[in-house]
Amino acid sequence: MRLILLLLPFCFFAKADMDYVCYVDENNAPYEYIAKSCQRNNVLVYTSAPYENQIFYISDFCRFDRNVERDKTSFTCVLYNKFPRSHVHKD
Questions:
Q1: Which stretch of DSSP H or E encloses residue 7?
Q2: Tens-digit pLDDT profile for residues 34-53
Q3: Which of 17, 20, 24, 59 could make a disulfide contact with 41, Cβ separation 3.0–4.6 Å?
Q4: What are the phi and psi torsion angles at 58 (to 5°)?
Q5: How far apart are CA 24 and CA 42, in angstroms?
Q6: Are the beta carbons of 28 and 48 closer than 8 angstroms?
Q7: Distances (CA, A) of 7 to 11, 15, 20, 42
Q8: Which residues lie below 8 Å from residue 75, measured CB to CB, with a gap of 6+?
Q9: 74-78 vs 21-25, strand pairing mode
């Protein structure tokens, strides 16, 4: 119990990268741009993505314990990792 009380004040100094926004355009090599310029837990704003294709990008990059906001040409989410998730295919 003492340890919890001792460590509690340090929680207020923990910093998340959700303070930064990473803007990505579908037309300009988005996978390379995310790997080079974005960081884990950044807010990802992905534009110029057709609604039908957004689910593929969301499954590659977004955290599923946070909200994902979508419209017809873009989506916003919290970036899980700057590299896409691996895909499991059953042949």
A1: helix 2-7
A2: 999 999 999 999 999 999 99
A3: 17
A4: -65, -45
A5: 12
A6: no
A7: 7, 15, 26, 26
A8: 46, 49, 54, 57, 58, 68, 69
A9: unpaired
